[in-house]
């Protein structure tokens, strides 16, 4: 498992070899799964026309090249990004979108053809661990997973605080936050399709041989994470909008609680000796507690508007509960960022305004 890595640009620091830090984390995701080269002509040359085989080969070769480049860049601490997530991820996503329909044509062409090609993929976090499977549906599953991970990388880049030369300090713009909502929804859609449309096509014995990144629980958890973080962005925008009511903010916070509860229940149990598994567990714990803190906070503010003694007492109880969940989220956040590979974060500093307040990844409110 891994993190979408982004960090403040520091031109005075040059590192060599694999980084020991993943940088500042906004979006958690597994390490990219990278496809290995496949010889389509040898496997399909006698079964499909030459033009189709050549098109498959060309499209997949482009995906392999771009995925390897993006994987190499993701492991570098000084990754270059543009305001909209970097041309590398955009080009890779486009290449995957062009390859996927041609690949689906292969799996639907004939049940015999789907098992003719041995597809090989490896995770960037451990190149020695490759998964090979002679099933085109496995390739479809891997492509959808990679498309979702590329979306998460784009979201992470969009949420990296930037300086705008206006003297207000680095922050995440409203434009970037709005853009991430669509990116998160797109990632969730790819993963939902993988779970409900593709996994059932793979025989049970092959499903048991899938790598941990592609097991149903992880795919569901990441799909829900896309939905949860999309709502996270919407709540941040609502907080900044003076026209948004407390009821709207509470509803969004409660939706976040629902999604992070489902994520916690979906993640399969993995050995915590695996650093990435421990880091993922802490990330979910952090975001779940943070969502509950927000939900109780806004609920308390609504109760505080009541004129009865009982509503006032309930408001105090809700705000006290929010304070306790806030403390829990801060502890989980610090544990997450200090767990190897370490990541930099100021758990008390809002990315948007830079002030020392109760912060989510991209917004803040005071308790």
UniProtKB/TrEMBL annotation:
Pfam families: BRO1 (PF03097). It comes from the Eukaryota. PROSITE patterns: BRO1 (PS51180). Residues 26-367 form the BRO1 domain. Belongs to the BROX family. This is BRO1 domain-containing protein.
């Amino acid at each position: 498992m891994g993190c979408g890595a982004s960090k403040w640009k520091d031109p005075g620091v040059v590192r060599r070899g694999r980084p020991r830090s993943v940088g500042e984390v906004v979006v958690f995701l597994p390490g990219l799964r990278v496809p290995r080269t496949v010889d389509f002509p040898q496997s399909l040359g006698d079964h499909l026309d030459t033009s189709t085989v050549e098109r498959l080969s060309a499209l997949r070769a482009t995906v392999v090249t771009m995925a390897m480049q993006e994987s190499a860049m993701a492991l570098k601490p000084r990754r270059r990004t543009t305001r909209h997530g970097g041309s590398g991820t955009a080009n890779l996503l486009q290449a995957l979108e062009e390859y996927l329909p041609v690949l689906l044509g292969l799996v639907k062409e004939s049940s015999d053809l789907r098992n003719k090609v041995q597809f090989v993929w490896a995770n960037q976090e451990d190149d020695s661990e490759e998964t090979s499977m002679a099933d085109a549906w496995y390739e479809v599953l891997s492509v959808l997973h990679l498309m979702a991970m590329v979306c998460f990388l784009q979201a992470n880049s969009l949420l990296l605080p930037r300086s705008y030369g206006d003297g207000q300090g680095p922050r995440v713009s409203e434009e970037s936050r709005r853009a991430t909502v669509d990116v998160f929804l797109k990632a969730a859609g790819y993963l939902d399709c993988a779970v409900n449309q593709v996994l059932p096509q793979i025989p049970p014995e092959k499903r048991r041989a899938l790598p941990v990144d592609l097991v149903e629980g992880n795919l569901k958890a990441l799909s829900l994470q896309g939905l949860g973080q999309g709502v996270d962005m919407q709540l941040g925008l609502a907080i900044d909008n003076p026209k948004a009511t407390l009821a709207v903010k509470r509803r969004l916070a409660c939706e976040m609680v629902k999604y992070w509860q489902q994520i916690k229940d979906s993640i399969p149990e993995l050995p915590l000796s695996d650093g990435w598994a421990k880091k993922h567990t802490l990330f979910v714990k952090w975001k779940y507690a943070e969502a509950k803190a927000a939900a109780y906070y806004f609920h308390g503010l609504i109760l505080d508007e009541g004129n009865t003694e009982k509503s006032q007492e309930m408001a105090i109880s809700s705000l006290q509960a929010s304070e306790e969940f806030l403390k829990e989220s801060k502890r989980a956040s610090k544990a997450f960022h200090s767990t190897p590979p370490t990541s930099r974060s100021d758990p008390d500093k809002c990315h948007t305004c830079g002030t020392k307040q109760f912060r989510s990844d991209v917004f803040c409110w005071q308790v």
